[in-house]
Specification:
It is built from 16 helices and three strands. The chain is mainly α. It has a three-stranded antiparallel sheet with strand order 1-2-3. α6 (about 130-145) runs antiparallel to α7, α10 runs antiparallel to α11 and α15 runs antiparallel to α16.
């Protein structure tokens, strides 16, 4: 993608930065992946990385490695999730299988069922663990009326569900509920999909500085107290200068983090919502004339970002604000 177009997409999505790159051939089979992170407004390069691999089959592993490196520049030390799903695990490590999968999806989207089936069959032949390819292959067989073949594939997908992205797991469960006439299961899965989409709309609205739109996105959705919901409601209220609601939502976010009793869950999630809650609490306490509370929150936030390579923009803002508050108190 052209960097100018990538910048436009990032700006429209409300992203602070965007990533572009190139895959180069540097030997008979060797490849090099060059990527750079650029500021959305200025296009200034804030980080660049490169990594070499022995062959095209290493490409997904290379992407996973560079993703971890780049995340390390933006997130506090020790907070990178060690058990986050890699591309190789969530999709496939076989580049040729992935190519056939993409061709299959393109054919499926154009209602060319015979072509879709051919390409997806080849994808699962090349990688028998490619769960997403099995799922779309089942969809295609069901579309052409081959229920028996679709059900055979569903049995295979059940064994590989853990390899499906979350939204595809939900789609699979909806299909199973419909075919088994398990109305409750079908409604439950549809509801989960609806809730996830509402959260995505809320996040996009917050990124675009649309507080009213973010709150409207959650209309009709229960007031969940989990981290992403509390945090993004807090951001929305902050955009609307409703400081009482802001304080409560960010405190809810921090409390939710403290209440997590599952160590595996904690280790597998980046605590960025909780960390940024300290930053935004610092902001509202400074604005509402509570300097000591603001200092405490900024210090709590900055205690996780001692390394000089941190690129998160709020880190610099917090340091400036903290120095200002300390100087005034001085």
């Amino acid at each position: 993608m052209d960097p100018g177009l990538a910048q436009a997409v990032a700006r429209d999505a409300g992203a602070d930065a965007f990533i572009t790159g190139a895959l180069l051939k540097v030997g008979p089979t060797q490849l090099r992946l060059d990527v750079r992170v650029q500021d959305t407004q200025s296009r200034q390069i804030v980080e660049s990385e490169k990594l070499e691999g022995e062959s095209v089959q290493n490409i997904f592993g290379m992407v996973d490695s560079l993703t971890a490196r780049i995340a390390g520049h933006f997130l506090p030390g020790g907070s990178i999730p060690g058990k986050a799903p890699a591309i190789e695990q969530a999709a496939t490590s076989n580049v040729e299988a992935y190519r056939h999968y993409q061709l299959g999806l393109e054919a499926q989207n154009r209602y060319l069922s015979a072509d879709a089936i051919r390409e997806l069959e080849e994808a699962v032949r090349l990688d028998p663990q490619f769960a997403s390819a099995y799922l779309h292959l089942s969809f295609s067989y069901r579309y052409v009326g081959d229920q028996r073949k679709s059900e055979e594939l569903d049995a295979k997908i059940e064994q590989l569900q853990f390899r499906l992205p979350r939204h595809e797991q939900l789609l699979f469960q909806v299909g199973l509920g419909r075919r088994s006439r398990d109305t409750e299961a079908m409604i439950r899965s549809h509801r989960i999909i609806e809730v996830r989409r509402a959260l995505q709309r809320m996040i996009v609205s917050v990124a675009r500085n649309d507080g009213s739109g973010a709150l409207a996105a959650a209309t009709g959705i229960p007031k969940f107290l989990t981290e992403p919901w509390s945090f993004n409601r807090g951001r929305a209220h902050l955009l609307l200068n409703d400081y009482v609601a802001v304080e409560q939502e960010f405190k809810n976010t921090l409390q939710e983090r403290r209440n997590m009793g599952n160590l595996g869950f904690i280790l597998a999630h980046v605590p960025l919502y909780a960390l940024l809650s300290h930053f935004y609490l610092g902001e509202i306490y400074e604005k509402t004339g509570k300097p000591q509370q603001a200092i405490d929150e900024y210090q709590s936030f900055l205690s996780h970002f001692e390394g000089p390579r941190t690129r998160l923009p709020q880190v610099g803002e917090a340091r400036t604000a903290l120095n200002r508050l300390i100087a005034v108190r001085g």
